[in-house]
Amino acid sequence: MPRDDFKRELNDAFSRISGSPGSDLPARVRSALIDAPERRGPGWLAGVAAVAIAALIVGALFVIGPLRSGHSTVPVGVATPSPSVADSPTPAVSPSPSPSSSPTQSVYVCGSSTTLNGTQPALSALIDSVRGGTHAGYDRITIEFQNGQPANVQITPQSNATFTQGASGQQVQLQGKDGLLIVIHGADGHTAYSGPTDIHVGSGILEARQLEDFEGVVQWGLGLAKPACYHAFWLTNPNRLVIDVQT
Q1: Which of 4, 116, 191, 211 pairs with 106 at a CA distance of 20 to 30 A?
Q2: Are residues 231 and 168 in the same domain?
Q3: Nearest to 158 by CA among 132, 182, 130, 180
Q4: DSSP 3-state assignment of 42?
Q5: Contact 241/185 with Cβ under 8 angstroms?
Q6: pTM over the 0.70 mark
Q7: pLDDT tens digits, residue range 24-33?
Q8: Domain encompassing residue 166
C-alpha cells in the first residue's frame, strides 16, 4: 500500500476509534482491531494497534486530569444533606407548691357563726366517734360519721359557757368563760356511738359535752378558756367534722 494511503487510513481509524473519550473507548478499540481486514496485512494491523494505544492514552489522560486538579463530581439527582437544626432546649417546669393543710395556716373565724353543708348527705348520718386532742397552737374536736355527712352543721360562738340542754330546757354550765355551740342537722348520736358524752380536751377547749340527740338533731357545747378564733371543716375517708380552736 502506498505510504500516503496508509497514513490516511490510519488517521481515519484513529478518528473512528477515539472520538470523544468516554466509558465506551475500550470497546471501540477492540471493535476496530477485530474488524480490521486481513487483506491489509500485518503492517496495517500494527498501525491500527498503535492508533488504539494512543487513543487509550488520551482517554486516560482525560480521566486523570480532573482528579489531579482536585475537583470532585457530584452524582446528578442525589440531594446533599442539609445541616440539621438543633432542637431548642425545653424550659424546665418547676412544680407549683402544694397548699399546706396545716391548721395553723388555715383561715380562722373570730366571733362569727359558720355553716357547713354536707355533700350528698345521708338520710341520717350516724355518729360513731367523738374525740378531742391538743396540738401546737390549737385544740381539736373531731366528730366522725359512719355512713356519710349530715345535712348541715351550724357553729355559733357565745360569750359564756352556759348552754341549754335539749328539749328539757335545763341550763348546763361547762368549764370556761366562753363557748361554741355545735348544732348538727340530719344526724344520729346514739345508734352507732356509745362513747363518752362529756370530754375534757386541753387548755383551749376545756370541756366538750353532748347537749341534745333527738329527732335528727345532735348538739354539742364547747367550753372555752377565752374568746377564741376557730376553724371548722370537713375531712373524708372517713367523713369527719373537725373544729380547731386556737389556744
Answers
A1: 211
A2: yes
A3: 180
A4: helix
A5: no
A6: no
A7: 655 665 555 4
A8: 106-246
Cell of 200: 375534757
State the helix-helix crossing angle for 3-18 and 25-35, rounded to 10 degrees: 140
User: 241, 145 in Cβ contact below 8 A?
Assistant: yes
In a domain, 95, yes or no: no
Is residue 30 assigned to a domain?
A: yes
Q: What is the tens place of the pLDDT at every residue in 191-225?
A: 999 999 999 999 999 999 999 999 999 999 999 99
- Return the closest-CA partner of residue 233 out of 104, 110, 130, 114: 114
CA angle, 242 then 199 then 133, to 5°: 45
The reply to whether 84 falls in a domain is: no
| Reduced DSSP (H G I as helix, E B as strand, rest coil) percent helix, strand, coil of the chain, to 5 | 25, 35, 40
What letter would DSSP give residue 169? T
Q: Are residues 126 and 211 in the same domain?
A: yes
